[in-house]
Amino acid sequence: MNAVSAQRPVEETNLVAHELTTETLLQLASREIGAIHVRNFYPEDISARFSEKAMNHPALGHYHKKYTSSVGRVYMPHIDTKWKAEEIDKYHNAALPSINDVRAMYFPLLSPVDYVRLLLQELWPTGANLLRLHGRTCFVGAFRVFQPTTSEFYPHNDQIDQETDAPEIASFINQLVANIYLKVPEVGGDLQLWLREPTAAEKQTILDVEGLDPASIEPPRVVLHPEVGDLIIFSSRMLHGVTSCKDTHRVGMAAFIGCPTPDKPLAFWS
Ligand SMILES: O=C(O)CCC(=O)C(=O)O
Ligand SMILES: [Fe+2]
Predict the structure, then answer these.
(1) Is the CB of 81 under 6 A from ligand 1?
(2) Rounded to 5 degrees, what are φ and ψ at 163?
(3) Residues in the 5 Å CB sphere of ion ligand 2
(4) Mind telling me which Pfam families this protein's record contains (predicted)?
(5) Tens-place pLDDT, residues 89-129
(6) How does 114-137 read in b/e, with b if 16+ C-beta sit within 10 Å?
(7) Of ligand 1's atoms, which has the minimum distance to the CA of residue 146?
(8) Can you list the domains of the chain with their CATH numbers?
(9) Tens digit of pLDDT for each residue in 12-36?
(10) Three-class DSSP category at 90
């Protein structure tokens, strides 16, 4: 073990499940565990090919907040609608064309996010659907591109009730996020999980600048170093962050998952 990996906090194994099953999903939804981390979920060679496509994609843009602006993303995410009618229209009008673009990129293979959608539809007791907001289709299947050394996500949380008042989200009691990693650095690019929601004051800071100063909070409870092809699902309502990549880009595909009680279906968007 080299000096850098020796410093990495060891994951608390009882907090992380390594298989995606109905049981682990229900445990994650009810916060009995902190994450599901499935190694070798998606083939390494296909991941590598699509990380190149994502990094060179014509729709590659950037997040808009202070701390996240160096992180690239392909296609417009819902967080960029910012309660503005014009942006909301743009997001929903682009949703299906963007989903189809991503699917066409992979065709005749299955994209990692389409694969996750199918599995969760089968595993969650009442299935899973694409999210609609005020009846309008959402996009799902964003690529995220972290630049070497400059991109990181400070501790933050993601919750869609801060982005819309659509009636379709009223039943969500948790929000999960699934990430599939297509390219990862050897060192850095760790996912940090605090396993708690931010305080009211922390929430305000996150809304303002999209992240907390890591020195201002306690160390994370769980730190996971994803490998190429891994799937990690965790609660995005709880504090999480991504450390900077030391040697290469870090590319992932992500889907948010609205999580009601098990008698209602899950819902996907990006
Ligand atoms: O890239 C990751 O590991 C997680 C990024 C993140 O903040 C999220 O998916 O909400
Ligand atoms: Fe996040």
Answers:
(1) no
(2) -115, -15
(3) 158
(4) WelO5 (PF22814)
(5) 999 999 999 999 999 999 999 999 999 999 999 999 999 99
(6) bbbbebbeebbeeebebbebeeeb
(7) 1
(8) 21-263 (2.60.120.620)
(9) 678 999 999 999 999 999 999 999 9
(10) helix
